Fold:
Amino acid sequence: MSRGVMQDIIRANMRTGNVSALVLPEQYQDYGGRALTARILSEEVPPNSHSLGKNNKCIIATGLFAGTPFPCSNRCSIGAKSPLTGGIKESNVGGTVAFKLSKLNIRSVVIEDQPAEEHGLYILKLGKQTLLVEHRFNLAAGRQAVERLPEFFEIEPLFPHKTVYDVNSKSVIAEIGNKLGLQS
Structure:
């Protein structure tokens, strides 16, 4: 199908740091949003790969009508192989992201591979700082000092092994809190 404007797919490799802009391949021209995230994931991520491993990808895709004046057309889909289900999981959001990407002629951004260990340590440090800020905010708002995992982690069998998460979520959260120096 011929399009008036060629759109790009941006690929960012977290291990090498390379970012490339390629013309959106022909097989993806008629896909947008959730359909595009599912198509890329099903073609490029091995089904038996670990969802937190280097073979998983995070796909950000605009809808086919992003950048147009149609109501509710500027949606952005974000998808990956889910650690919870082991299948493809997608979420979408409104706002200006899809509109701005479409104005840059970008249909999709693919984030792939994993950063080298030294970059991963930076991400862990950033995560710790984020947890501390969230904890302080929750205390100031009068919320419980230490949160807990949702109950379904302890009672519902999880894919792909149909096993129940066998660690008490209160003890896990408490352990994380203790390591961060948080008071419960």
The beta strands are 8-13, 19-23, 57-62, 76-81, 88-93, 106-112. The chain is about 30% helix and 20% strand.
